From TrEMBL:
PANTHER family: CTP-DEPENDENT DIACYLGLYCEROL KINASE 1. Keywords: Membrane, Nucleotidyltransferase, Transferase, Transmembrane, Transmembrane helix. The chain crosses the membrane at residues 20-45, 88-105, 111-128, 148-171. It comes from Pyrococcus yayanosii (strain CH1 / JCM 16557). GO terms for molecular function: ATP-dependent diacylglycerol kinase activity; nucleotidyltransferase activity. This is Phosphatidate cytidylyltransferase. InterPro entries: Dgk1-like. It comes from the Archaea.
Amino acid sequence: MSIKLEIKRKALHLTGLSVPLVYLLLGRHAALFFTAFALVIFLALEPFRVIEDLRERAKRKLGLPNHVVEKLEREIDGIAREHERRGIGAHIYFTSAAFLVVLLFPREVALGSITLATLGDAMAAIIGKPFGRHRFRNGKSLEGSLAYFVTGLLILTPLVGIFPAVLGSLVGTVAELYELPPDDNFSNQLAVAVALWLVG
């Protein structure tokens, strides 16, 4: 994926910051409702993204202009990873994990892990793609991993203190680097949250 498409993808991912923002402004119950509502919407729409026949039937029923729909489809296909084009999208994994993190963990842990998973992932790609010189076998770079780690320290230290921030950032960096199953958009948040909770 080109750096331009990667930036588009990460810009879309940054909408994940709406979860900690809702939590900060309106509280835990509002954040749970918000993520649950978003997840239901995403799950309802997901078959139309993945199954072409369903999408074609919906287009005909809605009567949308072909050029508008085709442009939107090209944009979505352009920023989707190969495994997402016929499988579960990153937004489903991210929203599911965010709901679990808000539900199961204390406020500072939830805010920190969701924010880090969102911004850390974006910084790792934005720095790692163009500036990564030391590549791992999976194509990710040392520079991108360092960008994630530093982002983690900046986000987590004010919330949980320096030692938990170092541990949480390190765990998140490893989870991001190895893309822990089922998907790094799911495992990253939970890995950071568990690490912070254990030392909290």
